[in-house]
Amino acid sequence: MYKILKAKKLADKIFLMEVHAPRVASHCQPGQFVIVKMDEKGERIPLTICDYDREAGTITIVVQEVGASTTKMGALKEGDYFRDFTGPLGCASEFVSEDLETLKNKKMLFVAGGVGAAPVYPQVKWLHERGIDADVIVGAKTKDMLILEDEMKAVAGNYYPCTDDGTYGHAGMVTTMVEELVNEGKKYDVCVAIGPMIMMKFVCLLTKKLEIPTIVSMNPIMVDGTGMCGACRLQVGDEIKFACVDGPEFDGHLVDFDQAMKRSQMYKTQEGRAMLKLQEGDTHHGGCGHCGGDE
Amino acid sequence: MADMLKKVPVREQDPKVRATNFDEVCLGYNLEEAMDEATRCLNCKNAKCVQGCPVSIDIPAFIHEVKEGNIEEAYKVIGKSSALPAICGRVCPQESQCEGKCIRGIKGEPVSIGKLERFVADYALENDIKPVGAEKKNGHKVAVIGSGPSGLTCAGDLAKMGYDVTVFEALHELGGVLVYGIPEFRLPKQKVVAKEIEKVKELGVKFETNVVIGKSTTIDQLMEDEGFEAVFIGSGAGLPMFMGIPGENANEVFSANEYLTRSNLMKAFDDSYDTPIAAGKKVAVVGGGNVAMDAARTALRLGADVHIVYRRSEAELPARVEEVHHAKEEGVVFNLLTNPKKINVDENGNITSMTVVKMELGEPDASGRRRPIEIPGSEYDIEVDTVIMSLGTSPNPLISSTTKGLETNRRKCIVADEENGQTSKEGVFAGGDAVTGAATVILAMGAGKAGAKGIDEYLRSKEN
Fold it and tell me: What is the dihedral of CA A138, A142, A145, A147, to 10 degrees?
């Protein structure tokens, strides 16, 4: 059993939890994820790691209620337990094993959409702790849905919030912000884009045009998360890759997003889709400006 | 009195009924039937059946006890060699092992050794007969990676020798392939697997779930930081293989591992569990092994019309004869000498049909089986909405890539000595599918036993 030491609501249907999981906390790196199972009958749900404290043995996760299982999870309180909490899974972000001096000469741009801010945060923080300041764009549907703002500001070089409805920061989607920065004359060697698949797709289309190499973090359907089932397979260039063991981060210019999005819809039956729409209303992942909800 | 040429028939659920439920197909012997069948054993002095058993159970001795009605004694005889008899009695390929060697089999049917083993083991589970553990602990710590058949066997044997054993399991349930792979109707999870693992716990073995070795910690760290003096790797097979044909990433293409994991481990067949499964209405299972039969029979029970698509003929089917027989009885259709070419999809990525081609058998290949060759121009479409690929697995690199000095072979399997499980790294032993590639439960158990012996010898030699 894994104790929840802290549970906090960040925005509507978005929760942050700090969980005691010493084995995970002692080994995790930016870019990796965990699999959480609430109770005996629950699903195995992959969630990105938002933060970790090796000494305290804790992992911070951010959960968005999108289906029955995550809605149940959102109801958990401080002092409750997860039955299972496994990780860290997947590979660490590539820059973690890069030569620090080379890395210091690189200009990095992070683009986060919606809850994508959670997995972006530990990457930016890791760089900041090593004296590297990256630019960070965070997009949300509206001001109230923007998460982890103070945390992100504290570790980012430049921080650019965007809202689709213009209630805060730059008005418009994250892609227009990227374009604006490049038009201002900013040069980036690498872009890391994490958020809903549709947002990552459009960021990649843009950065391909701008010739900025781009890493994305894929979040396909998974079951075991250890390479056993192949549910999370993706077409990356001319290869089939498993997000759980080969990823979750890939060269965004090689990922077949259209196929990945179709595969993600698998378990969203007509009825399920209706329920999602009802539950999510206009609070869907957001930040991308392209998806128009979950359709 | 039993007909000496024939096995005492074992009761099974009616095929029509069982095709709609997940209850166990085979109902097993009762005491009277078991004692009756036991009289067929010739109690050979130089018993061939024992040679056919990868864990060398003293088969004539336990059957003798059954004949006398001493079932507890029979369990103790088996317990000397096997920690998981209720499982082996159900899933071992007895026809090619113990029963395949039985003298009775020359003129008639061999003794039903598997069903007798199962009867004895079930009796022990029902009557809570305790396994015999070590008299005292020796204080040496050993880590076992994976709680599947090889890991459980290795852990059980080491605990009986007095070692302080901890088993690390990556998933949330114990049992490895016994819980995620083999379906409920062949191997009941609560009634058999969980109880048999409970017996291993009673021997003093500790278990830690949700630990992915290579990620949550490494073998080097287990040995350097956590004080384990030896490690046994029984991490199992690994990544499912796909064919590489067009359309294979369509939504409803599953690996057999995924389909079975959803149904067995996550219990998607039971509505009270949260994990869904897109079971399909017309399902093609590609492959002819035991896993393919398990997937086909699972799909059938989830309400689908099921076809096995296999590129060779019936004689080459790698699955156990009993499994093929059961599948046919239940209504699985076999499209033999047929191979998929392409999976056809609509604009949403959903399967509309599968294009297959007819095959014929040519000259024998490296495996000794006749090589299947496409018959040009024989392509046709079969109407399916779901395809399950059951083509075997390739080793998972999580452990080999994170352990210094652990040698793997050309197929990326861990290299280990067959006799004692020793790998290229000192103090590290391995066995089961991680070493051999996908094989059987009992072979993995045999490797677990060899590993336990190897670890014991290694740690004793270090003391001296």
Answer: 30
In the DSSP assignment, the letter for residue B111 is P
A104 phi and psi angles, rounded to 5 deg:
-65, -25
B368's CB contacts (< 8 A; 6+ apart) are: none
Q: What is the pLDDT of residues A161-214, one digit of tens each?
A: 999 999 999 999 999 999 999 999 999 999 999 999 999 999 999 999 999 999
Q: Which residues of A touch B265 (CB under 8 A)?
A: 224
Assign residue A100 the CATH number of its domain. Answer: 3.40.50.80
Percent over 90 (pLDDT), chain B:
75
B380 at interface of A, judged by CB pairs closer than 8 A: no
Q: How far is B189 from chain A (nearest CA, A)?
A: 14
Chain A: give the shortest CA distance to residue B257, in Å.
5
Domain range for B450: 141-238+394-463
Contact B239 A228 (CB under 8 A): yes
A290 CA to centre of own chain: 17
Residue B274 at interface with chain A, using a CB cutoff of 8 Å: yes
Residue A134 in tokens? 């990256």
DSSP classification of residue B364? E
Smallest CA–CA separation between A23 and chain B, in Å?
Answer: 6
| A204 Cβ neighbours under 8 A, 6+ residues apart | A193, A214, A216, A252, A253, A255, A257
Nearest CA in chain A to B277: A267
- Answer yes or no: do B251 and A87 touch at CB < 8 A: no
Count CA atoms closer than 13 A to B403's CA, side-chain side. Answer: 28
Distance CA A195, CA B317 (A): 46
Residue B387 lies inside a defined structural domain of this protein: yes
Alpha carbon distance B240, A55 (integer Å): 37
Residue B172 sits at the chain A interface (C-beta within 8 Å): yes
ipTM of predicted assembly, 2 dp: 0.86
For residue B414, the domain's CATH number is 3.50.50.60
A33-37, strands of its sheet edge to edge: A81-82, A2-11, A14-20, A58-64, A45-53, A33-37, A84-89
Question: Touching check for B275 and chain A: CB below 8 Å?
Answer: yes
Handedness of CA B249, B253, B256, B257 (dihedral sign): positive
CA-based torsion, B305, B311, B312, B318: positive or negative: negative
Torsion-angle region of B244 (φ positive above 0: left; ψ -120 to 50: alpha; else: beta): left
Q: Do B172 and A83 touch (CB under 8 A)?
A: yes
The rounded mean pLDDT for chain A is 89
Burial of B451 (0-12, 13-18, 19+ CB in 10 A): buried
Give, as one character, the DSSP assignment of residue B265: I
**What is the domain range of residue A195?**
94-217
Residue B378: what are its φ and ψ, rounded to 5°? -100, 15
